[in-house]
Amino acid sequence: MKRCLATAIAFATFGLSTQTSAEVTPAPFTLSVGESVLGHTFEAGYRFNSRFGMRGLYGDGSISVDTSLEGNQYDGDVSLGGFGLIFDYYTSGNTFRLSAGAVTLDHRFDGATSGNIVVNGTSYSAPLNLSASFDQSLAPMIALGVQTPIRNSRFVFTGDLGVVYTGGATASGSDPTNTIVQSDIDAELSDINNTLDDLPIAPFLKVGIGFQF
């Protein structure tokens, strides 16, 4: 009887040990820095257990952009920035994750043409200033991601690839020299905005290095 009881206890202990090792929860907190569509990004994450977690992130920065719209070349800068709140579901391997949440897109393009341009079919030598921003400042997002230790240390590589729903973008423009006919500017902006409305989603990309504790 005692031998059977000892055997049962041994098996129960082994089973509990196996279950515990299979459900090991990573260190709950992660702080990371990196780059994303929000610019230079700082992120703080918390793991509730081995499967679920959440993250908050903040980004800020700017990039220079040369782009062509309706046949005219615009040179300018895009101001980046925003906040995000993301909820994660980790797969059984405890490395890959499915994520959903929302980010604020404090993005704005400010630029101008140079040289000769064609506005609504008419040639001009005057510059056309252009500003554009997303229609939705709060954008839902979904992504696939990864968070994995670097060489079995507390340092981790983290990354996400997904999409955000921006609802499109809206542009406004002006001629600082008052040379371009306003009706031509309005027609040009209408064509540009029709093009921007056809792009209701934007990529979401983030990579970084973090520390778990």
Please state the structural category. alpha+beta
Order of SSEs: HEEEEEEEEEEEEHE
**Oligomeric status:** single chain
Q: Taking strands numbered 1, 2, ... along the chain, how are they ordered across the largest sheet? A: 1-2-3-4-5-10-11-13
Number of strands: 13
Cα distance, first to last residue? 46 Å
Helix residue percentage? 10-25%
Uncertain residue ranges: 1-22
Strand content: over 45%
Which value, in Å, is the CA radius of gyration? 26 Å
In one word, what is the shape? elongated
Taking the sheet with the most strands, its summary is:
8 strands, antiparallel, barrel
Please tell me the overall pLDDT.
87
| H/I helix tally | 2
List keywords for this structure.
213 residues, 8-stranded antiparallel β-barrel, two-stranded antiparallel ribbon, 13 strands, 57% strand
Q: Could you explain how this protein is built, in words?
A:
- This protein is 17% helix and 57% strand.
- The two termini are 46 Å apart.
- The strands form 2 sheets. The protein has an 8-stranded antiparallel β-barrel.
- The protein is built from 2 helices and 13 strands, in the order H-E-E-E-E-E-E-E-E-E-E-E-E-H-E.
- It is elongated.
- Strand 10 (138-149) and strand 11 (155-165) form a beta hairpin.
- The protein is α+β, with helices and mostly antiparallel strands and 213 residues long.
In short:
With 213 residues, the chain is of the alpha+beta class.
SSE blueprint and pairings:
Blueprint: H1 2-22, E1 29-36, E2 39-47, E3 52-69, E4 72-90, E5 96-104, E6 108-113, E7 117-119, E8 122-124, E9 129-134, E10 138-149, E11 155-165, E12 169-174, H2 182-197, E13 201-212
Antiparallel strand pairs: 1-2, 1-13, 2-3, 3-4, 4-5, 4-6, 5-10, 6-9, 7-8, 9-12, 10-11, 11-13
